Amino acid sequence: MNIKSLLLGSAAVLVAATGAKAADAIVIPEPEPVEYVRVCDAYGAGFFYIPGTETCLQISGYVWYQIGANGYDEDSSAITGGDTTGYIGGSTGDGWLKSTRARVNFDARSDTEWGTLRAFIRLQATWGTQVDGPVSVDQGFIQLGGLMMGYSESFWANSGNGGPSNWGSHSWGGMYYGYQQRHLVGYRFNGSNGFFAAVSLEDDTLSGEGYMPDVVGKIGVSQGWGAVWAKVAYDESFDGSVPTLGGAAALFGLNDGGWAVQLGTQINVPSAPGSSLRVIGYWADGAHAYNVGSPSVIFGPTSESYYGGAEWSILASYNHQFTPTLGASVAFQWFNDLYYATTDASSGVDAWGAELSVVWVPVENFEIRTELHYDDVGTFNVPATPAGFDPDGTVSGFLRFTRYF
Fold first, then answer.
1. For 317-360, how does the pLDDT look when each residue is reduced to its tens digit (9 = 90+)?
2. May I ask which residue range the UniProt record assigns to the signal sequence (predicted)?
């Protein structure tokens, strides 16, 4: 055996020994990767994927503290349109009227071959002069593409599409525009060139009264210059008969259902981004669910409300955005020929209201808002009081601090 053969044999033995030891070595497995929450940017800011799913979830809401005061008393009271739960209209007595509200929204969305599938839940609680309740489900609905079903704002107030065609004036209170929430099934369509449309079947009684629903429809165009729209609504359960008023003889104006129409436009100010003029006209054939309402006057010690909404109403509102964080709006609304409450009988009484709203956002997600509202109703024309009664105008207002998240 020569030297070369010896060296080759020794090398082979060493390699074999090393391979055996490597095969017997303990290998520590790598930990499985942790699935952290992923941002979902398909539906805007604030959405994230629910771990292990393709569903995106957004959690949002706000907390406000409000200090209000008014000039309403037991003989003359008014309630503005909009979300009156937090508004100070309608409260009687002197002194400060305080309100605190907490709201949390859960918004879950995912893509399907039929469009976006969405579920929305709103939890809310308000503590204040008139209300002091526990947390409740304020809204809950399902959407699939343009189809919507559940409990939410009536399409008469807000269909969720059509931009300025929703709500009333530029303020939070919105003046008088017929705010209400309903069980409904609706469909919304957004086409090219800003065209939009919506229709809904709504239930106002929630008591199984027959099989005919209320119906709301709207159509319009929203573009950079502004918007124009039309709405029509039918209240199938409206009966215009007039009950006895203050011991007077009953009046009758029977009506098989009630109709309402709205025509509106908004003109954006080109040189002032965020500034716009909005004008809306309303008509209704009785004081039914789709009449936008009016300053509701309570007369005398019996506290009977004699007036409902008007036959005609015109609302004009202008908002000016001074800076991205400071804006102010003014609005005026006229009510021609108020109906007696819940009827289609005219009283011949007119009314009007006005408001001023200022909104300041000093830091992101923190808003300071103040609104001042005035209502005035003409001379009472009630059978029980042939001499008439002219109540004083009423003033209300609030200062509110809101933290959004």
1. 999 999 999 999 999 999 999 998 889 999 888 999 999 999 99
2. 1-22
The model's pLDDT over 377-397, given as tens digits with 9 standing for 90+, comes to 877 655 554 445 556 678 889
Phi first, then psi: what are they for 148, rounded to 5°? -135, 140
Q: How far, in Å, CA of 90 to CA of 296, rounded?
A: 9
Beta bridge partners of residue 357, listed in sequence order: 329, 371
Largest CA distance in the chain: 140
Which pLDDT score, from 0 to 100, does residue 74 have? 45
77 pLDDT exceeds 60?
no
Q: Are 202 and 184 in contact (CB under 8 A)?
A: yes
Contacts of 356 (CB under 8 A, 6+ apart): 328, 329, 330, 371, 372
What percent of the chain shows pLDDT beyond 90?
A: 62
Q: How many C-beta atoms surround the C-beta of residue 209 within 10 A?
A: 11
Residue with tokens 């809101």: 402
Amino acid at 389: F
